[in-house]
Write a structure and sequence with these properties.
Blueprint lengths: L5 H4 L15 H5 L3 E5 L3 E3 L2 E10 L4 E9 L11 E6 L11 E7 L6 H4 L3 E7 L3 H5 L8 H6 L11 E2 L3 H7 L6 E5 L13 E8 L2 E10 H5 L4 E4 L10 E3 L2 E7 L4 E7 L2 E3 L3
Antiparallel strand pairs: 1-3, 2-3, 3-4, 4-15, 5-6, 6-7, 7-11, 8-9, 9-10, 10-11, 12-14, 13-16, 14-15
């Protein structure tokens, strides 16, 4: 699959019984939440599964992906894509499903993102809409160049100019937006992990953590705010914090979009 050409142009709480490196102390101490998992998907020599954490009222606290440590071994040389359903307990969130991509040779521009890494698209759009991002469609260019209103784009994120959108849009993904403050300067930027957003046909369509295999293997922990738009296209729970950590108890990497807040469509 032609992957992330857009980047050429624009250089939780978990279940209360589990304490994970990288979670905030407040999240780790919550005893009023419960985590539900999807079915596991084989990845490499291990597995990946999505999850949703809800509070005692059933309101979502977080969604995420857990990957076993062995999922980083035995990966194919030609890359692979996995479509992962979210548990039904995530239905009140803005997310519909997750696409996990393994990129063994990175992707363009190689000077920035040439390292072996994983992309994790948390889709707002449903699978049918994603499958409709087809360059053979006669209106593909128009739909790619149709950006959301600026008020719906997270702060500091930029995309290629409209005329380039159709060339840089990725089939079955859309147009990718990068954080202009992330210092992605060719020859200077050292990619370990980053957070991307995306759009298609006037809609804000996905949030995407992206991280290298080597960085994951260090079992580093991060916790960063997710930059927010001024307004929202959907009434749903949206995450405000992105975190990654390794759970020694279960031997899993945990990628979390958490501290969800109910936003109103405007």
């Amino acid at each position: 699959m032609r992957h992330h050409r857009v980047l050429r142009s624009v250089s939780l709480a978990l279940a209360a019984c589990v304490t994970m490196a990288g979670c905030s102390a407040a999240a780790a101490e919550r005893e009023d939440s419960r985590t539900y998992f999807s079915a596991s998907e084989r990845v490499g020599d291990g597995a990946a599964r999505t999850y949703a954490t809800v509070d005692t009222n059933g309101d979502p606290v977080a969604v995420g992906i857990r990957m076993s440590a062995t999922a980083l071994d035995g990966l194919p040389e030609n890359g692979e894509m996995f479509m992962l359903d979210l548990p039904e307990q995530a239905s009140a969130t803005v997310f519909d499903h997750v696409m996990l991509n393994w990129n063994p040779h990175g992707h363009e521009p190689e000077i920035l993102f040439g390292k072996p890494h994983f992309d994790m698209h948390f889709y707002i759009s449903d699978m049918a809409a994603v499958q409709g991002i087809d360059p053979s469609a006669p209106d593909y260019a128009d739909r790619a160049a149709r950006f959301p209103d600026a008020k719906y784009i997270p702060r500091d994120y930029i995309a290629p100019p409209g005329p380039l959108a159709s060339e840089l849009a990725v089939p079955f993904m859309g147009v990718h937006w990068l954080d202009a403050t992330a210092g992605m300067i060719p020859g200077v930027y050292d990619f370990t992990q980053t957070f991307i957003n995306g759009s298609w046909d006037g809609n804000y369509t996905f949030m995407e953590p992206m991280m290298t295999r080597a960085w994951l293997q260090t079992k580093s922990s991060i916790r960063e705010p997710i930059k927010q738009p001024q307004e929202y296209q959907h009434t749903a729970y949206y995450p405000t914090v992105y975190s990654v950590g390794f759970d020694d108890a279960t031997g899993e990497y945990d990628i979390t979009l958490g501290e969800m807040i109910l936003r109103q469509q405007s």
